[in-house]
Amino acid sequence: MPDIYTPIDKTSLRCEIMWREYYEIPATDERLRYRRDNPYVDATLYFWEQVRTLRSNAAKEELRKLLEYYGVGNNLRMHWRGLPEIPDRVKLLPE
Fold it and tell me: Could you tell me the residue range of the domain that residue 46 belongs to?
């Protein structure tokens, strides 16, 4: 059976699973500490527009890797909604 999921689909699902622990923490300083201590989680939250800031330089580096991998660009403020054109290799639906 062919794999029908794109790499970004798979990343989205992994993130949702990974975020469960984060969302179980009450919205307090403890949640901010969790993001600071888990830079990849912080970067993915930002990447998928779940948060508006990053909590560490390590998270910025993780975000840079995600943006580079998915061809988003170097602008840390750029999100999927703001892209004029999404690269073919990461499109979810054919045109």
Answer: 7-90
Contact at 8 Å (CB) between 54 and 43? yes
Task: Tell me how many domains the chain contains.
Answer: 1
Is residue 28, in this structure, part of any structural domain at all? yes
Closest CA to 62 of 82, 81, 83, 46: 46
Element at 23 (helix H, strand E): helix 7-24
Sign of CA dihedral 20, 67, 91, 11: negative
pLDDT in tens, 31-45: 999 999 999 999 999
Looking at the whole model, is its pTM more than 0.70?
A: yes
The reply to whether 95 falls in a domain is: no
Tokens describing residue 91: 């499109």
Residue 91 has pLDDT above 70, yes or no: no
